[in-house]
Amino acid sequence: MSTAPAMTTTFAVVVTCYNYRDFVVEAVDSALAQTRAPKQVIVVDDGSKDGSQDLLRERYGSDPRVTLLMCENGGQFVAFQRGLAVADADVVCFLDADDRWEPAHLEKIGAIYDARRDVDFVFTDIVLFGNESRTIAYADREMDLGYTAIATFELFHWYGAPTSALSLRRAMAVRCLDLPGHAASTWRLSADNCLVYGASIFAGRKYFLPTGTVGYRIHGKNGWWSNRGPIETYLNRIRSRGLIHEYARLAGIGPSAIDLVKYEFKTKPNPSRAEIRRYASLAMRTRGTIFKRIERALSILAYAFRKPRAR
Q: How far apart are CA 235 and CA 296, in angstroms?
């Protein structure tokens, strides 16, 4: 009796560049050097004025592995859309032109996608280099986060990472980037919000895999934590809340969805203590008497502590 071969996930890598001539070759070369080769490497130059386009044409114009899209400036959200439009693979990864991957990056995340056809979104830790040196991670261990729509809708919790550490199945990426025209101007920067929040609200199953393979270059004040005063913080949060509510409208999610919080929590095989507290607090927001809300919170705690737990 023959055994069906394991399904092998294919990858498209979308590299977005705007005036990063000094860095973009390192980013593209890191995508091409993967031990698990991507099906496509798509470079979207978003109207650079620093010679990036000439450099890209010179270096990759005759390379059949690379698709070059030289575009007018539209911002990061539009660059994502343009790259996705020509992507023909199971999973799409996004790589900023000033970042880089270690050679085993696609091999490591590919193992999750191959084994778990139910997982829609895999993200990793980031290793800072350049002007800073440290690792930033969502958690201290590998974690199946299950579904996260209610926690995202109610708490605006960020189940994700910066652009270069994100990957998602192409169909999910298409849904996340199918937004009204105003999104292009709103998300000229920080368009990774659209991928992270959209995948949560559209009920994508999320998985965090620490790999140590994503290099996030710090130069000037490009880190999201840099140069962000109270006004910028406020405006970013306002925009993010509007984005989440737009996705919720498209998904048909409203205030009554919180009553399903117990069921969403049970999709998480081994939640962290922080996640347990998060969902117990959500249970206290549900409808009904205070006694009913306490009962729901206690049921989440009881369910959680019957399972192995992470710190």
A: 35
Two tokens at 90?
């199971």
Residue with tokens 């000037």: 220
162 neighbors 195 (Cβ within 8 angstroms): no
Beta bridge partners of 143: 208
DSSP-H helix ranges across 6-49: 24-32
pLDDT digits (tens, 9 = 90+) for 291-301: 999 999 999 99
What domains appear along the chain, each with residue ranges and CATH number? Answer: 11-251 (3.90.550.10), 255-304 (no CATH)
Q: Tell me the one-letter amino acid at 191.
A: A
HSE on the CB side for 10, CA within 13 Å? 9
**Calpha distance 163→158 (Å, rounded):** 13
Torsion of CA 177, 17, 106, 204, to 10 degrees: -20
Residue 94 three-state SS: strand
Cα 163 from Cα 196, distance rounded (Å): 9
What is the 8-class DSSP label of residue 177?
T
pTM more than 0.85: yes
- For residues 117, 83, 245, 276, the Cα torsion angle rounded to the nearest 10 degrees is 40
Burial of 232 per CB tally in 10 Å (0-12, 13-18, 19+) = exposed
- pLDDT tens for 252-266 read 999 999 999 999 999
Question: Among 7, 4, 151, 71, which Cα is nearest to 15's?
Answer: 71
* DSSP secondary structure letter of residue 257: G
